[in-house]
Amino acid sequence: MRLSRRHTLAGAGALAASAAFGLPVLSPAQAQAPAGAQAPGFYRYKIGDIVVTAIHDGFGRRPLEGFVRNAELADVKRAMAEAFLPQDALQITFTTLAIQHGGKLTLVDTGNGDSGAPTSGTWMANFKAAGLDPKDVSSVVFSHFHGDHINGFRLKDGSAVFPNAEVLVPAAEWAFWMDDAKMNAAPDGMKGAFAGVRRVFGPVAKDVRRFEPGKELLPGLTPVAAPGHTPGHTVFALASGNDRMMIMSDTTNHPALFVRNPDWSAVFDMDGPQAAATRRKLLDMVAAERMQVAFYHAPFPAVGFIAREGNGFEMVPVQWSSAV
Fold this sequence. Notes:
By secondary structure, the protein is of the alpha/beta class. It is 27% helix and 25% strand. The protein has a seven-stranded mixed beta sheet. A six-stranded mixed beta sheet has the order 8-9-10-11-12-13. It is globular.
């Protein structure tokens, strides 16, 4: 490739500008190198004295048709277009939280493990890139029992990923999914979900700690009932000093759809009307209290605030910072 005098001068100007602003200077070979994988997907921030690390577990794609059960496809496509998103399919991301407080390491949900879409399963690499070790996890707290939240706890071969962790689950969620009568009565499309719950938790069932909402579970972490998505779906209030955050779990799927349109129901909501009522109640509360929020399915790092907007709400992402 031959470079003209104009290209050479332009390149020299760019190099000078980079140097002036203290930016790294790339060689021509580096500048033209093909893009590879993203940098490790973790992001740290603090809630008071608590260090929270968002751990990215990749994404899955879901066709848009049929995804929102109580809205016309044209309206859903319009919402996607307004958010500058594709109108044929939704890219659903997965973000768990690792909480470091008082010398303890707690996880809220565990991602897909090796059971998710081919574009997921990045959780462990990102967890280790963040300087964290599975053997140091003291507690794993689950929001609910859908596979993208629990399968990272136990791999397909049956191996446990967090050998030293106490397991804490919502009592109502456990009662539903571990009920043989409910499993036998479930439609064929749900029987696999029941089997998955038993695969993950069966080997440790006698040691699983079941909790009720409203009572502090671990220092600074209090479960809040949020039914509808599943019978025992739970969100968590995290507090330290004057700082508070609501870990919203699956209260919404993608915010462009379900924060802006809280009365819409995703195909994954087991009780659509109840899920919508829970969603509106929680979004209204965190907006009124200007409480920070973290979502499981929001664009990474999936943390921000909620503002009222017309008949719905808007997620306002936090400003990314190199400081924790």
